[in-house]
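Input sequence (123 aa), recorded before submission:
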Amino acid sequence: MNTAKVLIPNKEWLVVDSNQKIGGLTKHKKGYIFHKNGKELGFKTLNEVKSQLGIELFEERLKKISAQTTEYSVHDFPCRTQPFNPVYNVKNRLPLYTKNLKSKSRYCAGYYVIKFLSKTNYS
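Predicted structure, token format:
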């Protein structure tokens, strides 16, 4: 059975099979979307996802973890530490913050997926 690791509580999950990444699951207003190899499958409920794809979510474990940790956000983007000096970089569309009041180092709030493009050989 495939399992889903929590990326953003009750919003996004990483679907793995024997520690091998196989796709992602995202919650939307009308249900859930499973992303795999650039394709998307829509589902109305988590029970549909579980029955049709065989994906088990760690919701009980998530509830224990979220009860222990405090959620912070910068402009509606999640971050793990308490943010100071929050700003929104309009040019790059990034929510930035520092980890203390006097810091000059900025961190980006949120979770991001990096898409790698492979170069084709035209020789």
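Checked by second reader. The helical segments are 46-53, 59-68.
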